[in-house]
Amino acid sequence: MRKSKLEEYVVITGLSAVLYLLLDLPVRLTGFLDFGAYIGIKNLLPAVLGLFFGWYGAAGCVIGCTLTSLITDAAFSELLYENISIVVFGLGLWILWHAGAKSHRVHLKKFGDYMKYILLTALLSAVCGLLGDLMLGKGIFLSVFTAYFSMSLLVGIPTIILLSSVMCMIPILPPRCYMKPDVSGMVNSDPGTLDALNDMLDEYAAENHINRKSLYGIQNCIEEIMIRIHTFRPDTGVSITFYYDDSASLWFEYTCKKYNPFIMEKGEATDEMFGLLLIKHRALRVSHQCRNDINRIHIVI
User: Fold this and answer.
1) pTM (2 decimals)?
2) pLDDT (tens digit, 0 to 9) for every residue of the chain, 301 residues total?
């Protein structure tokens, strides 16, 4: 595993742990919900984080749950049960969602997507409820089932729609699963490579009924980024991948010393950055990161 990928997975696990802690700790400390330490708003997280981040999301939830239980001095039996439920629900949904799927995208757009999600979350909520009866012996099936199922639907569905359709988040997939980008290519200083990528975008837009205005915005974004990169890093090849849902997601990856095209160079005039600044202003998301001289840009427009 590349070091940059390992660092990314560590960050995902850590952020998942923090999120679980933030949703769980205030509820436990205030006693706002009196159904047991294993029930709360946090019950939506195994569904969302498990579906998008697999075992890294589940591991983060387990860490967050353990920290919260230690802070609040929760019973070990409840801690053990909650952690097992997180793993069962999070990994169960992750594996079952992708099992036999033709497309490994995580989104809720069609009736079949919603039915699949509802049935899987109902099944896994029931499993967690049965585990509660077996491990804690308190007749808690109904309360656990209701908590996991209702949170996964009422809060989980809008969150998944936001992350997948609007933010175009690319999920971590189970082993031997692959999500093919809609369009991908390598662009270097040869103008023909950019022309070839634009031709593929034209073809994809025609097949998927993307209006010309949106297509021109996507192509303009790519061209502006490439002009900037090749002005200051002329020999750099850039891998570009494009995903389309309710929004357009562009990923740029190139190897060189840290370079963010959205940051002005010394002595550079503001008008030279006008095109990129306009893109940044209109985009839903613009991010740049660099690890081990591998630069990645993500733009959602």
Assistant:
1) 0.83
2) 455 677 888 999 999 999 999 999 988 888 666 677 888 889 999 999 999 999 999 999 999 999 999 998 888 999 999 999 999 999 999 999 999 777 888 888 889 999 999 999 999 999 999 999 999 987 889 999 999 999 999 999 999 998 887 778 888 999 888 888 899 999 998 889 999 999 999 999 999 888 888 899 899 999 989 988 888 888 889 999 999 887 889 999 999 888 888 888 776 667 767 778 888 888 888 889 888 888 999 999 8
Using alpha carbons, select from 231, 229, 232 the residue that is nearest to residue 221. 229
**What whole-number distance in Å separates Cα of residue 191 and Cα of residue 207?**
25
For the stretch 297-300, contacts whose Cβ atoms lie closer than 8 Å and that sit 24 or more positions apart, written own/partner, are: 297/225, 297/250, 297/251, 297/252, 297/253, 297/260, 297/261, 298/249, 298/250, 298/251, 298/252, 299/221, 299/225, 299/249, 299/250, 299/252, 300/166, 300/167, 300/168, 300/247, 300/248, 300/249, 300/250
